Amino acid sequence: MLKVVSVLGVIGMAAGFLGLLHIQAVFSPSVLVVASQATALALFLWARFTFGRRSFHAAANPTEGGLVTRGPYRYIRHPIYTSICVFAWAGIVAHWSSEACLLGVWVVVSALARIFAEEKLVSLRYPDYADYSEKTWRMIPYVF
User: Where are the domains of the chain?
Assistant: First the structure.
């Protein structure tokens, strides 16, 4: 069931983001939006390179190689999902509408579904995940 939830989370994030693209609520010439999205992209790339050659699976599937706790994972457990949410919400704020806001909430809820499913699966695979999760934040340091 957790793998199904994780797949639905990925599909939900993608659908929400595509919806934002469709209503043109992602990109903006605003310096603040561009800076926020560039920072989100940098976090995404840093996390992806830190994660290494491990592939991304639509269904959360903890891979061999141990728990990654360096790079951005030293501070937050889900930097890739964080970057997706920040990137989307930067555009939403610039193109504020109820439709954009609902799509943004959909992206975040989908990311959270994926996060909670993934955390359970990773904790089953790596017993040291419990200790790691006590020392790091899920998405936003000092907040969540």
Answer: 2-54+66-135
